[in-house]
């Protein structure tokens, strides 16, 4: 049908243009923030592009929801402003009739948002957490540069090397100062290398000597060695340790229904339900008078989007704190929003029907109105 194809074509064009603009703005913001984290030492500068890709995938559901919502509002608002809606209403097309073509375009996007929320969102958060953790737990020997004294990650060791092989795993003329509860020790060696065994990292020194000082008795001991091994840094990162709920898979959250895990499930479910509710809200909020050249509809729509997503964040906090259950929260936030969107559509439909009925009422001529009085 001409009506369906025309409306879907306009919506798809508006959705594509809006998504490109939002992606450009959001990626620029995240790039600035990621570069700041790299400059501050929180992330590896070599992983900036990779982190930016993961962060973009994490926030893609929200960007898709906003793009779809703006596309519906702007397209229908333009149709009201250009009097196209008046023509369709006069032809017998009701406002409820717009639901079918709009939802036919929106449903594939909503399915993609659901998959991103339940699959890609935890995967992206997990990759970001592992990249940051791996950089923070990198080898103490990898932290230093030739000719510079460098403190280890725990602050208990001071390293110095004369030369290295370029990959950070082997070094020559190594100096190591260690402080612990038993005293202080100084170790020097001709060469050293990093050895990984299980989840631990060791530095293995060869052909050197070690001097230990007891701070209580001031006793000093010296020893020479052909090979000496000392643990450096913390354990290697494990993909299943200390992960936040947002980095856990959906099945793992279902198997362990703690309040924090249920709150994360409420958030992911809310992304899909929110996209559907925003489409219905967009149809109702786009109505306007073509004789009034104003953009209040778009402002009201953006305000509704901000309020709705703030409620989505609040619902996650309510469930995590144990104030409300997950089903109660979903019904309270998304159920009431759905009811409000349907009520708005019914009110707009009723107002349009009354307006068309008034226009179709016959107006009596001046001669006809004066005839009874003349008699």
UniProtKB/TrEMBL annotation:
Instruction: State the source organism's domain of life.
Output: Bacteria
Query: One of this protein's Pfam families, by short name?
Result: LptF_LptG
Q: How does it sit in the membrane?
A: Multi-pass membrane protein
Family matches, as InterPro entries: LptF, LptG/LptF_permease
Is this entry keyworded Membrane? yes
Kindly report the protein's main subcellular placement as a broad class.
membrane
One biological process term from GO is: lipopolysaccharide transport
Q: Where in the cell is it found?
A: Cell inner membrane
Q: Which UniProt keywords apply?
A: Cell inner membrane, Cell membrane, Membrane, Transmembrane, Transmembrane helix, Transport
Q: Record's Gene Ontology CC terms?
A: ATP-binding cassette (ABC) transporter complex
| Tagged with keyword DNA-binding | no
The UniProt transmembrane annotation reads 12-32, 60-80, 101-123, 265-286, 298-318, 324-347
Signal peptide from the UniProt entry = none
Q: Which NCBIfam families match?
A: LptF_YjgP
Name of the molecule in the record:
Lipopolysaccharide export system permease protein LptF
Q: Which organism is it from?
A: Rivibacter subsaxonicus
């Amino acid at each position: 049908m001409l009506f369906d194809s025309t409306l879907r074509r306009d919506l798809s064009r508006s959705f594509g243009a809006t998504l490109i603009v939002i992606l450009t703005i959001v990626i620029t913001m995240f790039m600035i923030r990621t570069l700041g984290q790299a400059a501050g030492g929180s992330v590896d500068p070599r992983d900036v592009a990779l982190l930016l890709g993961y962060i973009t995938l994490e926030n893609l559901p929200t960007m898709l929801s906003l793009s779809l919502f703006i596309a519906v509002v702007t397209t229908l608002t333009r149709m009201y402003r250009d009097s196209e809606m008046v023509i369709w209403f006069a032809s017998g097309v009701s406002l409820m009739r717009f639901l079918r073509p709009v939802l036919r375009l929106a449903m594939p996007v909503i399915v993609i948002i659901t998959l991103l929320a339940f699959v890609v969102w935890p995967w992206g958060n997990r990759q970001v957490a592992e990249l940051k953790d791996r950089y923070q737990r990198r080898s103490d020997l990898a932290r230093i540069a030739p000719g510079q004294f460098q403190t280890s990650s725990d602050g208990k060791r001071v390293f110095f090397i004369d030369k290295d092989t370029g990959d950070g795993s082997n070094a020559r003329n190594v100096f190591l100062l260690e402080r612990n509860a038993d005293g202080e020790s100084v170790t020097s060696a001709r060469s050293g290398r990093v050895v990984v065994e299980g989840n631990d990292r060791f530095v293995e020194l060869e052909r050197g000597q070690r001097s230990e000082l007891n701070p209580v008795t001031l006793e000093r001991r010296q020893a020479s060695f052909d090979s000496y091994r000392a643990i450096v840094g913390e354990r290697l990162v494990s993909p299943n340790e200390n992960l936040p709920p947002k980095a856990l898979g959906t099945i793992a959250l279902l198997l362990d229904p703690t309040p924090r895990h249920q709150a994360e499930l409420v958030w992911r479910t809310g992304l899909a339900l929110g996209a559907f509710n925003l489409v219905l809200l967009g149809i109702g909020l786009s109505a306007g008078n073509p004789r009034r050249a104003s953009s209040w509809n778009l402002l009201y729509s953006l305000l509704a989007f901000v309020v709705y997503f703030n409620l989505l964040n609040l619902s996650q906090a309510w469930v995590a704190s144990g104030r409300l259950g997950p089903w109660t929260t979903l019904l309270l936030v998304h159920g009431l929003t759905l009811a409000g969107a349907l009520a708005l559509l019914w009110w707009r439909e009723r107002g349009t029907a009354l307006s068309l009925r008034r226009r179709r009422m016959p107006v009596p001529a001046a001669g006809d109105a004066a005839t009874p009085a003349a008699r």
